[in-house]
């Protein structure tokens, strides 16, 4: 049948893989260093992955292709150990009032900026707290290095155990900052360095704060940041803060 479907320019694609998590159907995979469609019937043609390709290698074309098969998608996702139903993407991709979206992507990885109230609310339920998160996504592996919320921002780079260990994370560190986070023990610190270098080069970052736990493995995220800053050739004010396992600040 003639329908719209994603097209990946193999000449432009560098295999970075940023498009892969944006496809809720799991239709894109990396083969021999290039992004490819696993099968035509897995692609719904909505182009949710377009905005996450830094090289513009993904477009939507109209051509003869197998009909989109939701049942095939569900089997495909189940085989991958994923349980994200394809209809969830369409439902969740409707923009909520007050949210500003940049580019495409599935709801879990599409860049968003949030408006936060400037004043304190007097009618909040007892025990409630105002989130200071001003963007989405936050995972370093998912953020776009050209997202608008990084321009002119104070950047908080957080080891992802910190918000659990430190009770005052939002007010004391996150407020007013753009944030990226990850686990230096479980993730690839070489990737962190490469991604952060690109972020520092592309964005007018005003300051950098690295927030890490006191455990030795957490030092990787700080090392990757320092190496990325050196590789970028920029002079950006840098601060490193350690959080103890008891939730105390140690600089």
Notes on the structure:
The protein is α/β, with parallel strands linked by helices and 251 residues long. The protein folds into two domains: 2-89, 2-Layer Sandwich (Alpha-Beta Plaits), CATH 3.30.70; 130-250, Rossmann fold (3-Layer(aba) Sandwich), CATH 3.40.50. The chain has helices spanning 70-79, 86-92, 162-165, 169-174, 189-202, 219-232; strands spanning 2-8, 28-31, 34-37, 58-64, 99-102, 111-114, 135-136, 154-159, 178-182, 207-213, 238-243, 249-250. The strands form four sheets. It has a five-stranded mixed β-sheet. Helix 5 packs across helix 6 (219-232). The longest helix is centred in the C-terminal third of the chain and has 14 residues, at 189-202. This is 4Fe-4S ferredoxin, iron-sulfur binding domain protein.
Labels describing this entry:
251 residues, alpha/beta, Alpha-Beta Plaits, Rossmann fold, three-stranded antiparallel sheet, 12 strands, 23% strand, Corrinoid_activation_enz, 4Fe4S_Fe-S-bd, 4Fe-4S ferredoxin, iron-sulfur binding domain protein
Largest sheet: 5 strands, mixed
What's the pLDDT, averaged over the residues? 82
Number of domains: 2
Number of helices in the DSSP assignment: 6
Any guess at the CATH architecture of the largest domain?
A: 3-Layer(aba) Sandwich
Distance between the termini: 62 Å
| Radius of gyration from the alpha-carbon trace, in angstroms | 20 Å
| Subunit arrangement of the protein | single chain
Say how many strands there are. 12
Derived structural class: alpha/beta
Protein name: 4Fe-4S ferredoxin, iron-sulfur binding domain protein
Region (Disordered): 81-131
Domain 4Fe-4S ferredoxin-type: 4-33, 34-63
Biased composition (Polar residues): 115-131
